[in-house]
Amino acid sequence: MTAETDDRSGDTGMPEIELSAGTIDYQDTGGDGPAVVLAHGLGFDESVWADVVSALRPDFRVLVPVLPLGSHRRPMRSDADLSAHGVARLLAEFMDLLDLRDVTLVQNDAGTAQLLVGARDDRIARLVLTSCEALDNYPPGIQGRILSVACKVPGGIFLLVQSFRFPFLARMQTSLGGMAKKRLPKELIARWYRPLLTDRHIRRDFAKFLLATRKDCYLQAARNLPEFSRPALVAWGAEDRMMPPATGRRLAELLPNARYVEIPNARTLVQLDNPAALTEEIRRFVKDHPLPGEG
Fold first, then answer.
1. Interatomic CA distance for residues 24 and 276, integer angstroms
2. CA geometry: angle at 82 spanning 203 and 122, to 5°?
3. 219: buried, middle or exposed (CB in 10 Å: 19+, 13-18, 0-12)?
4. What count of Cα atoms within 13 Å lies in the side-chain half-sphere of residue 102?
5. Helix/strand/coil for 257
6. Model pTM?
7. Per-residue model confidence (pLDDT) at position 247
8. Which segments of the chain are extended strands (E)?
9. Quick one: pLDDT at residue 1?
């Protein structure tokens, strides 16, 4: 199941698992509690979920895979499918290899989890979608449009990520700063973008996602959502500009057993802006939808 550390990434001190695309790191709090898998978005790693992990770990087994979306430390194989569908399959493979059952899957920013519905959703007992790509909102916002253009220009990704060397540029509303209401710490910005800045193989993986993901992939995925009868929670940043709340409301209407809620004082990165409110909603959601043997 596991593999040796990739020479280019160094020892992260985290558990690792060999997937079909390559080796990824993951966080696992362990324990016998219900499994909660937290999925991050493009350009983030497990640290974006740190406050939520700390709040949930007393009662849940919380796992956070470091998906190959730009802040991963281990380059994937050169022939790996890193489209949105490919990354979704890796998320399903991760749950398969760890034999996780009755998972509460929580997604943020990327729309990955939606692509599992009707395809690889057998391990998902509850689905939580927080501000994320959905329906016709891809690429999302001005940030998504800039990335879409940059990846099509030779050297464009390399030039674009140079801005993340300077926190004041990264905090601009047209960049990372537009995704969070709180001021993002320079340490987190440096952590998230160091792999893209220092490893051309990571930039290759990042560009593959941007180039291979179809503009209509989430519209197509939406066709399966009405068939997902299991409990769903759509928890959207009330002040999100990149992923407008109207998109979240439309998404919730497609899921037959969904509740929609807006997280106050939060934009796209709801887990950073208001982790307490998001955690409370997740706890309430799980409590309101117990599985056999729970409660």
1. 28
2. 145
3. middle
4. 12
5. coil
6. 0.93
7. 97
8. 16-19, 22-28, 35-39, 61-65, 103-109, 124-132, 232-237, 258-263
9. 33
CA dihedral of residues 263, 29, 45, 108 (deg, nearest 10): -30
pLDDT range class, residue 295, cuts 50, 70, 90: low
Tokens 């802040």, residue? 71
In terms of Cα–Cα distance, which of 30, 99, 24 is closest to 67?
24
CA dihedral sign, ordered 58, 103, 94, 72: negative
- Nearest Cα neighbor of 289 from 248, 257, 253, 251 is 257
CA dihedral 237, 90, 230, 276 (to 10 degrees): -30
Characterize 48-85 residue by residue with b for buried, 16 or more Cβ atoms within 10 angstroms of its Cβ, and e for exposed.
bbebbbebbbeebbbbbbbbbbbbbbbbbeeebbbbbb
Asked if residue 4 has pLDDT above 50, the reply is no
Q: Looking up tokens 């990434």, which residue turns up?
A: 9
pLDDT, tens digit (0-9, with 9 covering 90-100), for 140-192: 877 877 787 777 778 878 788 888 887 777 787 777 878 999 999 999 999 99
**Residue 85: which of 67, 46, 112 has the closest Cα?**
112
Digit-coded pLDDT (tens) for 37-47: 999 999 999 99
**Residues 110/138, Cβ–Cβ less than 8 Å:** no
